[in-house]
Amino acid sequence: MLHSERVIRLKRLRILEKLSDAALQSVAGKCKWRSYAVGEQILGHGDTSTDVSFLLAGSARAISYSREGKAVVFADLKPDYGAIRWKQIFIKY
């Protein structure tokens, strides 16, 4: 993806929409751009991270598991939810 396309995608996010083009270009250059396959885990419960993630395309599901192994869905995420701090989504049992 070209740098200019990345800037356009970031500008669509509500949390960043008021930044100047120069500021968005700076942010775009500092981001680690990643793509994930359908069903691929992005971050696991209990993983430590201080990253802030932006969902720019597709969707993600925040899931935790009960002690019995049953999946508990906390949120279905779509682009434009703003910044996501993954550890805020997960709840310890």
What's the short version?
The chain is 25% helix and 18% strand. With 93 residues, the chain is an alpha+beta fold.
Polypeptide structure, described:
This protein is of the alpha+beta class. The chain folds into 2 domains: 1-33, no CATH class; 37-93, no CATH class. The protein is built from 3 helices and 4 strands; from the N terminus they run ααββββα. The chain has helices at 3-11, 21-30, 86-89, and strands spanning 53-54, 60-65, 71-77, 83-84. The strands form 2 sheets. It has a two-stranded antiparallel sheet with strand order 1-4. A two-stranded antiparallel sheet has the order 2-3. A hairpin with a 5-residue loop joins strand 2 and strand 3 (71-77). Helix 1 (3-11) packs across helix 2 (21-30). It starts with a helix and ends with a helix. Residues 86-93 have low confidence and may be disordered.
